[in-house]
Amino acid sequence: MRALVKLKPGTENTILDVPIPEIGADEILIRVKACAICGSDIHKFIWDPSMHMYEKYLPLIFGHEFSGVVEKVGADIKPDEAKPGDRVTINNVHVCGVCEACRKGMMTMCPEFYWNGGTKDGAFAEFTVVKKDQILHMPDDMSFIQGSLIEPLGVAANAVEKLGVRLGDRVAVIGAGTIGLFTVLMAKAAGAAYVTSIGLPSDVERLKLAVAELGGDDYIINEGQNAEDTVKKLTGGLGMDVVFECSGAAPMVNLALSLVKVTGKVGVVGIYAKNLELDLSTMVRSQKGLIGTFGGTTPYSRTFQWAKGHPELLAKAEKIVTHKSRIEDIEAALKRSADHESIKEVFVFD
Ligand SMILES: [Zn+2]
Ligand SMILES: [Zn+2]
Fold it and tell me: N or C: which end of the chain has fewer CB within 10 A?
């Protein structure tokens, strides 16, 4: 099968012909149909310092936002669980579900924890292997591309739930990548009264999309004091109830803290290539909180149920997909992303 493999640390990404993986008795072989490129995949493709922790898993096939068709099932899997031909989207995270860490919601500490496309081979390939608890059967009207978006929607849902966005809240979302845009959608779905997106001048098309398609109320181009001034005016000087930092640019965490109200919380959702200096004393005196949110494990199946119940919102989420290409087109996809020409790139397979 064709696969896009990171063989060793560095900027190189190689297309290889590799054997179709074998499956165990409790595993399922998936013929991949769509696998979206996550912002974190771009960090891995260019191998920036925030991804060096993955070195011990190389060589590896990345790709964790995917859907496909069941090709083959292991001996222990019953037909009502999965059978060849089933259309499925995948929860890319596997945990045991019963250990103490799992029961306490600390999924990444589960001894059986792995995630496809991060610590185990993923889906930038024609086939990949998952466990039966990772598959979710898609309804007929959910496309493979829509299925591939359930994971990033789950990440946004996790952020919104962790920060406890409530009915009537005023929310700012910094960053207009996939997760920033989906956080706008999920904050509105959770009942926020007003959501504004904040981005750079080069993000303007994305910011407009947040308003036109994803339910955002407005956007702010972050130049000079623009963001602080606009939020001050908007909230009578009080600040936003909740601010999400989804850009991954470390200094934006300070901006987020300045935009949130006294006693308010900032959700830190980005992954940061650089460390940051923080004015902790101001943060302490104003009793503001910084909360890291990562992955979508807990609300993943609920996000899937939500998407099934709101096909019109899932169709709107799909509007962020600007480019469909093949794994061979990786370099062009990376260039489009770097040049801000694309929003969401998806690799498709026949
Ligand atoms: Zn992702
Ligand atoms: Zn566990």
Answer: C
